[in-house]
Design brief:
Two copies of one chain form a homodimer.
Chain A: E1 3-8, H1 10-13, H2 21-31, E2 36-42, H3 46-59, E3 62-66, H4 77-85, E4 89-91, H5 93-106, E5 119-121, E6 125-127, E7 136-141, E8 144-149, H6 153-169, E9 178-184, H7 189-196, E10 207-214, E11 217-224, H8 228-242, E12 246-249, H9 255-266, E13 270-274, H10 280-285, E14 295-301, H11 304-311, H12 315-321, H13 326-340, E15 344-350, E16 365-372, E17 375-382, H14 387-407
Parallel strand pairs in A: 1-2, 1-3, 3-8, 13-14, 13-15
Antiparallel strand pairs in A: 4-5, 6-7, 7-8, 9-11, 9-12, 10-11, 15-16, 16-17
């Protein structure tokens, strides 16, 4: 089964948008034995889309198209596909009434343009879009299975996972790929590679391995077509070697999910006190449903005055050690734990950059703080000159700091 | 001048790596009048690379290839290009001694594999790589200008900016593309399309237009090769028609930047009180450097008890109207403004989902609150069933709620 991915949109070519959909589709389809062999990106141009599509139909078994399904004049994917396949465009009444119902539910007038999203090439099977308005579409032509998906990543991912993957899985002639993935935290890709050097399979092995670095930690992915037992054995060995950096099976939980699960199991709670991360830790802790079970709330304290006022950081601590110090980080955490009556509180104070650094306290200097029933703790980090990276890395590091202390029952 | 971009690498197809190079190249080359018309991604496969390259040479004036120039066996781009062009591979002695000199400088033994990076198709002009080892390459074939660049983003960007862009700029026959972009807020893509229907250029016009929806608002992009005056006229007309949804020129600012600029100009400050957004508004307001000039801090209040305790939301308000109500949103904003002594405070309380909804207060029901020197205000929103979308949309909507009141001096 050979798969071709076509992503459509002028904004992808002009560089206004980075195409993250191509990678997501590649990841999901290689997992079910339909690896992507080639990808193309073209603009919102009926003739160009048609040319690329016709040559792909001749060569591939599966074609996934994303983008250009919206309500506006520059969304021409459906026209282009219908023209290339020489089938008429028809309005799907069921989809149209679904769209009308949504607007009624929202109590908003439905713009006429929206009805464009109910048009599709004759013979299309509709793939439900629970995350937006434009439906996904499934067509068969010349022994090729063709999927049309919206370009909005959230909608594309939802329809791909819920509808496209199950359809592809049911196709005859697929070779299933066995995959396992491990989440780690608090260790860099190169340190991990050194630690695991003798365990990792050499090129040509029946098991393949790959490192996937992210701000929350490095993910390790393993796959095998022939040998699921060797795969499981390797994952066990690697997991053991990783030690305290091991978080869990990626299919079950990531760092935040891991911490959340332990908090809920122990019936414990957390609060946050943030300076340079500006609310990011709270945002990460509440990204998942049910976060009110363990997250009580937090305080974002950008100025010294507010640090004193909302968190009770002693004036003398700020004047003697400065806002970016281990002492302030611990006082922030203690203040949040005290005021919010949580089991734990974590804090971050630092110089995210690009401005604000000095010789003594350069950009990238960050202190993590933690308050538990047994005392307060802090950790110094020296990060980069990049603001976004510094904020993300320190937010995740604060959550991992809590995890280590929780797991050690401190 | 038509440009084709070919990105090479198994990791791009399997989804291990998101291809950010394609977007960067698109942005830089559209700026110099050589817009990218099409992009393709293939794996590290000599035959496949050759096929795609030959068909691109027939159709395009400029071809930019990235990836597969490294030292390992799976880096086959140079072989593939030489084979497709039917020219021999030669070792460039100057590049080879450069590589050897680097290793001497680093005081590290040079692995034999590294010498592969000095091989190139006969007739290649070397493009210096100051950021890594593999050089860039420039070849001409069949009236087509071809550039080979490493896949590591920093190296690719460096060689593109320092060598490729100057070469392309000097080519005869370039037509500069004029572009303008407008940021809007608080209006959906389809409502905007309806509002602008009669102004927007029909297909085939000298000015092209595109809608780019995002959580912060829809961006409108306009471009013209021949007619910059028509472009400016259209942008003026559209900007006026958009009315209070108009934020500004995208080259200058987005919604948050717009609000930040006005706050700084007026020497005013803001504080946040968040429930379901969990810190996201604070995070968005502090994404940019210098945010301490206008953002004082905020409070994330997930439980009712904390809403009372940290923000002074009256117990009777919570018990009579509930945590998700206009009254609570206003009390949260007033409490934050009072405690943080800011000019304005914005708040969000709602049911982000997927759980927690009732018939009376369904998932997606959100209240925005605002406190100014003149009073407190609130706005009800009915969003979707998707947690992530609801959080992002309500966070940006709260910032836009402030913008409108600020611009009206309320």
């Amino acid at each position: 089964m050979k798969t071709f991915v076509l992503t459509i949109g002028d904004e992808l070519l002009s560089g206004r948008t980075v195409d993250s959909n191509g990678a997501y589709i590649g990841k999901q389809l290689s997992g079910v034995g339909a690896p992507v062999k080639s990808r193309a990106t073209v603009g919102d141009d009926v003739a160009h889309i048609g040319r690329v599509l016709l040559s792909a139909l001749a060569e591939y078994d599966i074609v996934v198209i994303t983008g250009g399904l919206g309500p506006t004049q520059d969304d021409v994917t459906v026209e282009a596909v219908a023209a290339a396949l020489k089938v008429p465009l028809v309005t799907n009444d069921e989809v149209l009434s679904g769209i009308e119902a949504r607007y009624r539910e929202w109590n908003r007038p439905m713009p006429q343009a929206v009805t464009r999203m109910a048009r599709m090439p004759e013979g299309t099977v509709v793939l439900e879009n629970l995350w937006g308005t434009a439906p996904g579409m499934y067509l068969q032509a010349d022994h090729c299975h063709m999927f049309l998906l919206p370009g909005v990543p959230r909608e594309m991912q939802g329809i791909l996972d819920e509808s496209v993957v199950p359809i592809i899985k049911a196709l005859p002639g697929l070779t299933p790929v066995h995959t396992r993935a491990i989440v780690t935290a608090g260790i860099s890709e190169s340190a991990l590679a050194e630690k695991l050097a003798d365990l990792m399979p050499p090129p040509g092995s029946p098991v393949k391995a790959a490192y996937l670095p992210g701000y929350g930690g490095v993910e390790l992915r393993f796959s095998s077509i022939e040998d699921p037992e060797a795969l499981d054995r390797l994952v066990d060995q690697v997991s053991e070697r990783i030690g305290s950096h091991y978080i869990g099976d990626a299919a079950r939980e990531d760092l935040v999910g891991h911490v959340a699960r332990i908090l809920v199991e122990r019936n414990e709670t957390i609060a946050t006190a943030e300076s340079c991360t500006g609310g990011l830790i709270g945002k990460l802790l509440t990204d998942r449903p049910g976060s009110s079970e363990y997250y009580l709330g937090g305080v974002v304290v950008y100025s010294n005055e507010i640090k004193e006022k909302l968190l009770g950081v002693p004036h003398v601590t700020l004047s003697q050690h400065g806002a970016v110090s281990a002492q302030t980080a611990e006082a922030m955490a203690a203040g949040a734990r005290d005021r919010l009556k949580s089991t734990y509180a974590i804090s971050v104070t630092g110089i995210a950059g690009p401005g604000g650094g000095t010789d003594e306290k350069p950009v990238g200097l960050v202190y993590l703080g933690l308050a538990t029933g047994k005392g307060t703790f802090s950790r110094e980090m020296r990060l980069t000159r990049d603001r976004e990276q510094n904020r993300l890395r320190s937010a995740y590091a604060a959550i991992d700091f809590l995890r280590r202390k929780m797991e050690a029952h401190i």
